[in-house]
Amino acid sequence: MVLLSSTCRKSKDCPKDFHNDITISNNSTLTLNWKHFDPDSIYTLNGAPYDEILGPKVAALYKIRGETCWEESFPEGHSKYFLIFDNDTVQAIGWEQISGTNRGLLKRVEVDLDYLTNNDFTIAYP
User: Fold this and answer.
1) pLDDT score of 10 more than 60
2) pTM of the shown model
3) Mean pLDDT for the chain overall
4) Is residue 14 part of a domain?
5) 125 with 27: CB under 8 angstroms?
6) For the CA atoms of the chain, what is the radius of gyration?
7) The domain containing residue 47 runs over which residues?
């Protein structure tokens, strides 16, 4: 099992003990796909169908872009949704059939700064 933890790194705009990464952790035996989106958007065929394929018992880092940190990117009341899909379903029926539906959806997580802080900047499945 590969274990990656969220890291605290200081960048130009990110104070000490703030986070540049969110860990997406697959604690299951399934291969997963995950996608994120803002609450005011719908996940459809805009852009790539999913952000990454995540193998069984593997974790990956979702890095923030630019010289900032996650703490600064979630102003009061702001959140993102992370959707975790079964890769076998995505491959079997295709993203066009899944896009905008709950087909193959295993977990939907609304993530805000409180969620990240309480979960050590980790989103885990299951």
Assistant:
1) no
2) 0.81
3) 82
4) no
5) yes
6) 15
7) 21-125
